[in-house]
Queue: 3 jobs
Job 1
Amino acid sequence: MDTLEELNRRGFIEESIDPTLDLFEEIEKLKKEKNAIVLAHYYQEPDIQDIADYIGDSLGLSQEAAKTEADVIVFAGVHFMAETAKILSPEKTVLLPDLKAGCSLADSCPPHLFKKFKEKYPDHLVITYVNCTAELKAMSDIVCTSTNAVQIVESLPKEQKIIFGPDKNLGAWVAKKTGRDLVLWNGACMVHEIFSREKITKLKSRHPGAVFLAHPECEEAVLELADYIGSTTGILNYATKSNAKEFIVATESGIIHQMEKANPTKTFIPAPPNNNCACNDCPYMKRNTLEKLYLCIKNGLPEVTVPADIIREARKPIERMLEISASLGL
Ligand code: 13P
Ligand code: SF4
């Protein structure tokens, strides 16, 4: 068994697994034995999505983490998501299969620099996108996700001055949709910033009937081409309700698993990035594997912890988001 030091350095438990084991069966057994629930984001690999008790976007995952009665939450997603679950359910054990499943967007906003930035705008309210560290949430007035960012801004009086961080692309899209002048932090997601407007335009001309779906973390030049812009759940629901047969999808490729499951006769084409890589995988999300998930639930490690003072401060803006979302039926 790893020492805690080794585990923190590597990020996951390294232990040989009997190759004859059916990991799906073993994980189901362990879930019952430990009263554990597996929450997975749509960007996880298909096997993890298939073993999860709940699959969703950031808002759905936070809502689920707040209401679960399980003793253990195994978070198949990235670190900030597991932190959010811990903040909402501090009495529960929150596990993350790989502690190094971070996020380039969260990393693009170091809390000590954001603190200085915030000090320049003392009369501004701070809205932070959930894709940030717990420490940043603790400095915020309201948290939002891509599902509710527009409505959360609109719920505030028109004259209210607002700082929005850390995603400048989501912030610019929200500013455009609401007509508000937001002060933006200059952060971005490496996966959503890589899509190529030029290649998407060519792809659209080769597939004239295809509907183009994009996540608001994409750059404005890409969003301008979109027929629909929304969170991962929004994108999935839009494709499922649509009568179109072909879709070009500008978000992480993991979502396509659920899109194909719900729509077996429709075709989903990942939007091309501006390099020669054919995939739109998030390297952080894809650090989790079925094997790491199995070892994590079996050993009860790695565990995500958040200091008590950060939990106290970060909980308020997250709860405010959940209250506003519930009142809007989101
Ligand atoms: P949503 O699933 O909330 O749309 O978030 C996308 C994302 O980038 C998560 O890391
Ligand atoms: Fe972070 Fe982007 Fe990966 Fe989401 S897709 S976890 S925002 S790096």
Job 2
Amino acid sequence: MSDKASIKSGPDHIGIIMDGNGRWAQSQGLSRIKGHQQGVETCRRVIEACQELDIHYLTLYAFSAENWKRPETEVNALMELLELFLMRETDTLIKHGIKLHAIGRIHELPAKPRAALEQAMEATSHFKDWHLVLALNYSSRNEIVDATRAIVKKTIKGKLYPEDIEWEDIKGKLYTDGLPDPDLIVRTSGENRLSNFLLMQSAYAEFYFTPTCWPDFTKAHLQEAIDSYHSRERRFGRTGEQLDRETSLSR
Ligand code: FPP
């Protein structure tokens, strides 16, 4: 989408930092794992809501590269939930014409969820209109490291001169190559930070922070985030007057 188009419409791409599963569970006397299970239900609900609200790209931060530091039982439970989600939801993705993508160091995931992921991506690879992106073992800083390594290899081979390197070259080596930048980033559970999520891609994104924990997040909350997005003026470096002129010219 051109930035001019996204000023007036959209969001076309929403990224969500799904936070608060643990606190939601603990507040009800449940185990953290129950919170993650409930979080998976919210994923299903939000994927459906995105289609209803005409949002073509949804990126879910499902497991960060830093999440390996959690207790082993919790990491194992999250990997099992991921595998189950992929096995159970692939048919739904196919039914709704949703293409599944993954961003992150996918090759480092355990064999079973990785195989389920690869199968689901293969089975949905021909869809074009709707996109679900799972950020798994994802870290923006690792993404920059991996992109830099790829660029350096090209320069060593003499295929790219250092002085010719532009943003487009780096962008083309990010895990998100081929995907549009997010228009809106949502974080649940009252935390106001990005935690290494889509740092480069969200350069011009709008941010929406809600105190609602992820298991309680509904289509109505998503609509509130979208309403907030629509109340903002996205200028992409231009002045408000320039935007007004462009809007009146395009009418
Ligand atoms: C943050 O809550 C959530 C996570 C680290 C994982 C998100 C995972 C899911 C929603 C389930 C798996 C997803 C898929 C797509 C299968 P937290 O545990 O950090 O909550 P807390 O901050 O309250 O402790």
Job 3
Amino acid sequence: MTATVIDGKAFAATVREKVAGHVARLSEEHGIVPGLAVVLVGEDPASEVYVRSKGKQTVAAGMKSVERKLAADTSESKLLEVVAELNADPTIHGILVQLPLPPHIDAEAVINAIDPAKDVDGFHILNVGRLGTGQKAMVPCTPLGCLMMLRDHHGDLSGLDAVVIGRSNIVGKPMAQLLLGESCTVTIAHSRTKDLPEVVRRADIVVAAVGRPEMVPGDWIKPGATVIDVGINRVEDRLVGDVDYDSCAAQAGAITPVPGGVGPMTIACLLANTVTACCRAHGLAEPEGLTA
Ligand code: NDP
């Protein structure tokens, strides 16, 4: 079997187009421009690349982009002040504090200081609780992107066996909640899981979010299963995922490549979340197809 390659790059472009369409409509019909603020503390080179790319794509979609760059030794109280300013700014609908934060700052306290209605990363405890109880939430961008690709490929996900490898708060757990919301039978695997190969072999859908290069080999994959590879691992000079692409593609029905799979969907979903937050803030209908 040769797997269908799920082209995240192309899919993300369609999401960005939809976002731009909604942004144009918001401006024409209501005179509203959605605004996204990204706060970066310190000079982590990878974070700087992400922040630049987020800013560029925000502007390309017709939205307002604000970047707040703070020195690495910025105090937690100063950062909280910046968050409070952005919370109070009516032209800003989404706030993202780029992680990781320097060790002297309590990241949890900062995230929970963001107005939950502007928490486009979906990491605020209220949004986590809303997602877990099936209420309208801001949903973390990476799992939202995975869900969009799965819905697009499968249509109805109801009753499928899904195995999520990884239980982080930013990917694994919200991914599992979203799949449960789609009525999948969900298993969350992690470093203590007994007989991981057997667990993964049951899955119609495998989402790998581990951070270990090419850890999942093809013989763990049920023939015809869909494999979503969240992993981004730098090995020598190339990027590889958490699944061994060639052997998994030989077994799977569909698979996301790395790069060009989940990665591009993450920023596209950040833009989608910003438009959603803007519509909710103004009591307007939410954009269709861009939410969980
Ligand atoms: P974390 O390190 O926070 O979590 C990794 C998870 O994998 C943990 O739950 C851990 O288990 C589990 N794990 C580790 N080793 C094993 C093992 N041998 N068998 C089974 N499970 C294991 O990572 P993240 O969730 O933040 O990220 C995961 C990957 O996704 C990374 O490669 C990251 O770069 C990538 N990523 C990609 C994004 C994108 O936009 N495409 C966005 C975010 C992340 P335990 O809890 O027991 O320790």
